[in-house]
Amino acid sequence: MKLITEQIENVEILVEEKNGKKSLYIEGVFLQGDITNRNGRRYPMETLRKEVDRYTKTFIESSRALGELGHPDGPTVNLDRVSHRIISLKEDGTNFIGKAKILNTPMGKIAQSLLDEGVKLGVSSRGIGSLVKKEGCNIVGDDFMLATAADIVADPSAPDAFVEGIMEGKEWVWDGGRLREQRVESYKKSIHDAVTRRNLEEAKLSAFNDFLQNL
User: Fold this and answer.
1) pTM of the complete model
2) Max Cα distance, the chain (Å)
3) In angstroms, how far is CA 12 from the centroid of its own chain?
4) Which end of the chain has fewer beta carbons closer than 10 Å to its terminal beta carbon, N or C?
5) How many Å from the N-terminal Cα to the C-terminal Cα in the chain?
6) Are residues 163 and 213 in the same domain?
């Protein structure tokens, strides 16, 4: 399965007060269905609807729907980078309108500071799934699963090439109930082979130099 990310550029900032305590929220379109987006992908509404229902019941309703600040390079949520909690996802036509509360975490404080200073932030959904080429675009398969409905990003339109080349260019598989990157083992082997090969060449060169010096 591929890591699939989509960026939305505009979100609204909301400040709500309860019992004298102010909380900061972001709200806007988090997911879009039945359109071919700028990444050349299309999410069938039935696929999104099914996954949003699962995500809502499993994560949102149990207060475990978290998002990060920045562009993570994998499909898991890193707790040390959590900045907000998604509290709702509501269907609106072919969109899903999301709302997220900025948390009082280190990354949440950074996000709040950026928002207070007028920095324009966007959101980026992150999930895994298969892609099928059809009608000139990539159709997201019904195995699609959200890792998070929204990460907070400062440059939602800029990193497309980076995302495609580095983040989305990996295959992910289920291994004992956990997601594993298929390339990890090949990376380790290639690095090990390169280091071993280099060490061997260095050893040969050292021995040859030692031989010449003792002629």
Assistant:
1) 0.74
2) 88
3) 21
4) C
5) 61
6) no
Tokens 């229902």 belong to 53
Q: Give the chain's mean pLDDT.
A: 82
Could you tell me if 130 and 81 lie in one domain?
Answer: yes
Residues with a known catalytic role: 71, 124
Distance, in Å, from the CA atom of 214 to the CA atom of 188, rounded to the nearest integer, reads: 39
Domain identity same for 104 and 50 = yes
In this structure, the answer to whether residues 79 and 49 fall within a common structural domain is: yes
pLDDT tens for 82-130 read 999 999 999 999 999 999 999 999 999 999 999 989 888 889 999 999 9
Domain count for the chain: 2
Please determine, for residue 35, whether its predicted confidence score (pLDDT) is greater than 80.
yes
The domain of 215 spans 182-215
Could you tell me whether strands 41-42 and 137-140 are parallel, antiparallel, or unpaired per DSSP bridges? parallel
Q: 101: part of which helix (H) or strand (E)? A: strand 95-102
pLDDT for the residue 31: 94
